Amino acid sequence: MPDAKPPYAVLDIDATLSDTSRRIHFLDRRPKDWNAFFAHAKEDAVLDEGLAVATTLAETHEIVYLSGRPERLRRDTVKWLKDNGFPEGRIFLRGNTDRRPSAVMKLYRLKALRAERPVAVLVDDDVRVCDAAEKAGFTVLRADWGLDPETQPTLFDAQETEGRT
After folding, report:
1. Residue 135: partners with Cβ closer than 8 Å, 6 or more residues away
2. CB 136 within 8 A of CB 108
3. Is 25 within 8 Å of 47 (Cβ atoms)?
4. Rounded to an integer, what distance in angstroms lies between the CA atom of residue 121 and that of residue 118?
5. Can you tell me the distance from the alpha carbon of 10 to that of 141, in angstroms, rounded to the nearest whole number?
6. Polynucleotide kinase PNKP phosphatase domain spans which residues (predicted)?
7. For the chain, first and last CA: distance in Å?
8. How far apart are CA 47 and CA 51, in angstroms?
9. pTM summary value
10. Greater confidence, 164 or 141?
11. pLDDT tens digits for 66-113?
């Protein structure tokens, strides 16, 4: 009898695996400079706890990366994950014109993944995404290791009201 496929572990990228603190200032401006914010994503430092969580989960789960980054960043995202030692996994990014709030976009994808096989855990920093996932019955690990009280409200607002990351 063949082995069953392992459950999914779904991981956010920005402010969960990558340190966005050096580019968040692009979102403090009016108008927000989304092009610069995303152009500098490939320069993010690794959040050590995020890497440790991803590596540990990969031992017993199939890794799926679920990010609000636009699809146009796929090449940079794949390279960043590989160059920084993250485990291989499927990558789901936001469509380039998708402006739904992150909680809506990510919950839609989580439900689609759950239809394929169990989703063991979602690892995310966005409290609204985490709340929506928990309400829908998903187990959540809140990635509070990358939170900076000074910058996170800017990122959370961008994710929910502008549907950009």
Report:
1. none
2. no
3. no
4. 9
5. 10
6. 9-144
7. 42
8. 6
9. 0.88
10. 141
11. 999 999 999 999 999 999 999 999 999 999 899 899 999 999 999 999
What SS3 state is found at 46?
strand
Of 29, 43, 27, 55, the C-alpha closest to 157 is 27
Cα separation, 98 vs 70, whole angstroms: 8
Tokens 């320069």 sit at which residue?
A: 43
pLDDT at 99: 87
**Inter-residue contact 154 to 30 (CB < 8 Å):** no
Q: In order of start, what are the domains of the chain with their CATH numbers?
A: 8-162 (3.40.50.1000)
CB 120 within 8 A of CB 61: yes
Rounded-to-integer distance, Cα 29 and Cα 142, Å = 28
Pair of tokens at residue 74: 């796929």
Structure tokens at 126: 């966005």
- Amino acid present at 20: T
